[in-house]
Design brief:
Layout lengths: L13 H11 L7 H14 L2 H14 L7 H50 L2 H6 L2 H43 L1 H48 L1 H6 L3 H53 L5 H43 L20 E9 L5 E10 L4 E6 L5 H8 L7 E6 L2 E2 L5 H7 E4 L10 H5 L8 H10 L3 H6 L17 H15 L3 E5 L7 H15 L3 E5 L3 H5 L3 E6 L2 E6 L1 H6 L4 H15 L1
Parallel strand pairs: 3-8, 3-9, 6-7, 7-8
Antiparallel strand pairs: 1-2, 1-4, 4-5, 9-10
Helix pairs in contact: 1-10, 2-4, 2-6, 3-4, 3-10, 4-6, 4-10, 6-7, 6-10, 7-9, 7-10, 9-10, 16-17
This protein binds adenosine-5'-triphosphate.
Length: 595
């Protein structure tokens, strides 16, 4: 099932969701028997007040021989002892529920996060990032709130209802039946309310995700928004998503307020029935005053779980909707999977082969139409073409960020789909256009691929790439803070750091999406000599946006509208009059001359 399909497919019911959720988090069931035992003891302990009141009234005060203070004191002492035990078991039960649910949810968070990571680039783009973050944060928080608050109610409610019913029947079976007659229609009402609340809270969860995405986009893209002067349009979209969330939340809250009122009504209704019928029974001599008093206390014990239950319905619905969305993610099959019994890439330099590779993005038209190509080990290959011609798609298939719709990619002769992720990620590195930098120091960012690299080794890497002079210009050298996404550096400098990072990872196949952004001439010079050093001695595929890169490559692959139309050394291709490459090269030279 796909994560974004949840609006179109029939959703699993609340029970199915809870059952699936429990199967996925077996920790929640650990020691459940003992927790239920503690709940039963707590519930039995709560009988102290009704039974004590009945004993004190009927035997201690209104007994045949007159008031018996000794008996009253005995009942009071036993009551206090029982209350102490109940407090202890109640504490233990709550603690167990907290500990178990926190454990389970921490591992659910981890699992969901890892799964999001495993989902291919395709999912990460189509499910918006803010929404994915909400899965791991707010959605799981909702489940946690429910399990810790509502979960206790669920565990104690059933026990309390059973215990209260038994004792009520002992005092007066007629009144016990009356209580149940009022109670049964209420359970139907609750079921009906549950359905309505579930729908309302599903809407709330969706609008929260939408709102988070809108906020995240407008914060991350603040620069672009300002540059294009579309602040008003962005604010409108944000306002609309906030309004939608307010509307959904208000609707859900008014429905839950209604269900809360319904719970109160049950309590009052049952009390009225007991008082009226009980008065008749006492007058007719089939019930004592003490038993009726006890019964009224028992009604509290009986209806309390129902009333509190309707209150927690609110959280329960919220939680089930959240849980369902988390499960949707966890159940989404990653479309690029680590092969079971996969193999490692062969030792030594790696060549690449594409055999009849076709690719279409989900729901889109084919964008690569049968690519056959061989890239020799150790060669430096430039991939060029108009924008949208399929270069990036080619690179993503080459590094298995996606799988071809048909055809095969081989690296070092091994079909890519059979190579373990560990071997693939260790030997093949892709440097995207905007190589992402993390908030932290320069050293931290370079160490990303190799955590145990020493400072001395990092200095050597900078020197080997001819970047030691640049490093010296930084205020704190390797300890320079780069800021969020490397914001303290210029675009060109960020690319330099990405290159160093790729260099220390020492892959056998390097796939690099050359940055398009213009950089100052000094940095440009540093970049091109660092690039030369990085590519030396390994197979390199560069998506070249500057044709100067193509000029210095062993071979050039020319893409046009999803087809590989030319392949060969720069000089040869440029000489083919009227060819796509000759055209590209001609216009690039004109552009650089006019610059
Ligand atoms: N995530 C996506 N979903 C759907 N279609 C996509 C996606 N990414 C790219 N495409 C489409 O696939 C085609 C090839 O895109 P691709 O990014 O591979 O081209 P490119 O040559 O790398 O372009 P550029 O130089 O602008 O990066 C284009 O028509 C593009 O619209």
């Amino acid at each position: 099932m796909s994560a974004q399909d949840d609006t179109t497919q029939t959703q699993p019911g609340p029970w199915q969701t809870v059952k699936r959720g429990l199967r996925l988090s077996p920790e929640l069931r650990r020691g459940l028997g003992f927790t239920i035992f503690l709940a039963a003891v707590t519930s039995i302990g709560r009988l102290v007040v009704p039974v004590g009141a009945q004993q004190v009234l009927d035997k201690g005060l209104l007994g045949e021989g007159g008031p018996d203070i000794g008996y009253v004191v005995l009942v009071a002492a036993l009551g206090v002892a029982a209350l102490l035990v109940t407090t202890g078991t109640n504490y233990l039960m709550n603690r167990r529920l907290f500990v178990v649910s926190e454990h389970a949810l921490a591992s659910l968070r981890r699992r969901t996060f890892r799964h999001i990571h495993d989902l291919s680039m395709l999912h990460q783009q189509s499910e918006r990032r803010g929404a994915l973050t909400a899965r791991v944060t707010t959605d799981i928080d909702q489940v946690s709130t429910f399990l810790q608050q509502g979960g206790m109610v669920l565990v104690t409610a059933a026990a309390q209802i059973v215990v209260a019913t038994v004792v009520m029947a002992v005092y007066s079976w007629q009144l016990a039946i009356a209580v149940w007659i009022v109670f049964i229609p209420v359970t139907w009402l609750i079921k009906w309310l549950q359905g309505h609340l579930a729908a309302a809270y599903t809407d709330v969860r969706k609008s929260v995700s939408k709102m988070l995405s809108a906020v995240a986009e407008s914060v991350v893209g603040a620069g672009t928004v300002r540059a294009y002067g579309v602040g008003a349009r962005t604010s409108e979209r944000l306002d609309a998503s906030i309004d939608e969330h307010r509307r959904d939340q208000t609707r859900a809250i008014s429905r839950s307020a209604f269900s809360f009122g319904a719970g109160e009504l049950v309590y009052l209704g049952v009390n009225v029935v007991v008082v009226v019928l009980g008065a008749f029974l006492v007058a007719g001599g089939s019930m004592t005053v003490g038993e009726l008093t006890a019964f009224l206390f028992l009604v509290i014990l009986f209806t309390q779980p129902v009333v509190i239950g309707t209150e927690t319905l609110n959280e329960a619905q919220n939680a089930v909707s959240g849980w369902r969305r988390v499960l949707d993610i966890v159940d989404t099959e990653p479309d690029v999977a680590d092969p079971v019994d996969g193999v490692a890439l062969p030792e030594g330099p790696l060549g690449v082969r594409f055999e009849g590779v076709r690719f279409a993005y989900p729901g889109g038209e084919e964008v690569l139409h049968g690519i056959d190509v061989e890239i020799r080990a150790h060669s430096k290959v430039a991939v060029v073409g108009e924008t949208g011609s399929g270069k990036t798609t080619f690179a993503k298939l080459l590094t298995r960020l996606m799988d071809p719709t048909s055809g095969k990619v081989r690296i070092g002769g091994t079909p890519l789909a059979e190579v373990t992720f560990a071997s693939l990620r260790g030997r093949v590195t892709m440097v995207p256009q905007e190589g992402f930098l993390f908030n932290g120091t320069l050293a931290h960012n370079v160490r990303f691929a190799k955590p145990d690299l020493t400072d001395a080794e990092i200095y050597v890497a900078f020197a080997e790439l001819g970047l030691d002079d640049w490093l010296e210009t930084l205020p704190a050298g390797l300890e320079t803070e780069l800021g969020e996404s490397g914001a303290n550096l210029s675009v060109g400098e960020r690319q330099l750091v990405s290159l160093v990072r790729a260099y220390v990872a020492d892959p056998d196949l390097l796939v690099l999406d050359e940055a398009t952004s213009a950089v100052d001439p000094a940095t440009e010079l540093r970049l091109s000599s660092a690039l030369d050093a990085v590519t030396r001695g390994r197979t390199t595929v560069i998506i070249a946006h500057r044709l100067s890169t193509a000029e210095t490559s062993d071979e050039v692959l020319v893409f046009d509208a999803g087809n590989l139309v030319q392949q060969g050394p720069h000089a040869e291709l440029a000489a083919e009059a009227g060819s796509v490459y000759a055209g590209l090269h001609g216009s690039w030279r004109e552009q650089t001359r006019s610059n």
